[in-house]
Amino acid sequence: MKIIDSIQELGIGHHFEEEINALLGKICHWDASQDLFATSLQFRLLRHNGWTTFPENFNKFLDKSGNFKESLSRDIGGMLSLYEASFLGAEGEGVLQQAMDFSRGHLHQSIPHMAPELGRQVSRALRLPRHLQMERLEAKNYMDQYSRTTTKIPALLELAKLDYDMLQSLYKRELGEITRWWKELGLIESLGFARDRPSECFLWTVGIFPEPRYSNCRIELTKTVCILLVMDDIFDTYGSFDDLVLFVKAIKSYLNT
After folding, report:
1. Which residues cross the membrane (predicted)?
2. Across all residues in the chain, what is the average pLDDT?
């Protein structure tokens, strides 16, 4: 499970999708027993990758009052794993909200007593948990962290660096194509009130689907959002009511042709 987690956090999971899914099919039947780290990691990996898993797996860590056992707070690795897993909870899964509150509080209190490297890792997670981070930025940050671990696999780290550089080159080409299209369109020159934000729109698409196979999707979605922003500005800041009525009619007429 740790290797799968490292592969995905390094941003190279798209190279091993079949292998990862095959392993997850076996992992979903494992019993992590009383190991908080393993139970939390198992839950997060399965749910993150679309497999069915249940929050009741954490009930074994509750005391008779229905609270997480205080003795768990001594397991920093387990607490961090529990904290990260808690962000994949769904509405109505109260035990995961409990897990978030419990782990966050104890991790905050424990930071002054941690080794520097672990303290930095925990502080970063508390500021922005992994589930809420942009995948490519997280991959770049994790490479530095992974390179300092004693359990690193050099081949994976090298692949991650090459993959990151190749994707950066692809993103630059895509953004160049979008920028040329936007300038040729000339909307900013014609409509001075409109927002000029193709780079921001493109970055948003990278956050949604960063894999190389979605190159055309990123380009076309960026173009669509840029046009929609201009239309939104026309409605919000420029057009009169009568103008907007005519504008809507023109759009409907175009769509019906």
Report:
1. none
2. 93
- Sign of the C-alpha dihedral computed for residues 213, 216, 220 and 226 taken in this order: positive
Same domain, 115 and 217: no
Whether pTM > 0.90 for this model: the answer is no
Q: Which domain holds residue 242?
A: 158-256
pLDDT band at 5 (very low <50, low <70, confident <90, very high): very high
Residues 24, 126 within the same domain: yes
Domain boundary among 120, 152, 184: 152
Cβ atoms of residues 11 and 139 within 8 Å: yes
**Which of 152, 183, 213 is the endpoint of a domain?**
152
Residues 6+ apart with CB under 8 A from 13: 7, 20
Q: Does 178 share its domain with 85?
A: no
| Structure-block tokens of residue 106 | 């104890």
Percent of the chain with pLDDT over 90: 77
CATH number at residue 46: 1.50.10.130
